[in-house]
Amino acid sequence: MDNRNEIPNVSGYTIASVLTQFLAFMFFFLAFTGFVNGSVIGGLILAVLGGLCEFLFIKMIKKILFWKKQEKEGISQTPEETVFADSLYRNDGESYETARRFYCEQHGKKAGDLTREDEDIIWQYTYGDFAYLFMWVIENGFYRPSKDYDEDMAVESKAEIAKIRKREALPTDFLNDGGFFMEDEVAKKARGFVKEYFESSFLNDVRAFAKDKLGKELYGFPFRWEDYDSFKPQIDEAYKKYQEKNSGAEK
Asked: Any idea where the domains of the chain sit in the sequence?
């Protein structure tokens, strides 16, 4: 069961943060004493330990403040009362074997001879069943961090999405961090369309595009910007038809 949105007992974290801060001060004091007594190496080691404790202290304080904010806003502390977002896309690697087979056939390689670079490309193949639609969501400004993400996860996801939108990273890089995408990561304005299109004709459209334009099978090609740009008009057209069919339904 996914308990990411459960609020833990804050008092325990408060005690831990106080102890961590105490350790940080102790290490810094011992480091200062070491420097004064001429023990440079010992002082540096103690200073690093103090820095690590201070870092942990700051992280805990941020978590505590975040959980306090959730409590103030009335978010339940019991997982039974928590409503989690549904997964729109989840690929734990079930298509990886197919992607690896296609890659090995294309490049004349055996599974045991694959390098780390080969594996990275194969994972791009693996997420070919969602990458174009995900990029369309990003490019049109429809991405939102899931409500199930904590504060740090939300900040990290926004930073990753910004890089992808500027085409400094690939959408498959984001998906490769867990292989899932939540429904509420799409803005309400486009959520209904993305869900309906993905669950109906999107895969068939990608499969036909790969065969007709790329001469490949689904899970048999990596994400490339030029391919996405060629396929994007199909998503735009599908969205236009959805809007016409559901005029006034989504705000």
From this structure: 10-81, 87-245
Supply φ then ψ for residue 186, to 5 degrees: -110, 130
pLDDT for res 4? 39
In angstroms, rounded to a whole number, what is the distance separating the alpha carbons of residues 228 and 179? 19
What does the alpha-carbon distance between residue 164 and residue 173 come to, in Å, rounded to a whole number?
Answer: 9
Handedness of CA 17, 20, 25, 26 (dihedral sign): positive
DSSP one-letter string for 174-228: HHTTTSEEEGGGB-HHHHHHHHHHHHTTHHHHHHHHIIIIIS--TTSS---HHHH
pTM of the model: 0.66
CB of 222 closer than 8 Å to CB of 125: yes
Q: How far is CA 176 from CA 3, 84, 128, in A?
A: 21, 22, 12
Summarize the confidence of residues 28-37 as an average pLDDT. Answer: 76
Determine the pLDDT at residue 202: 97
Confidence of residue 25 (pLDDT cuts 50, 70, 90): confident
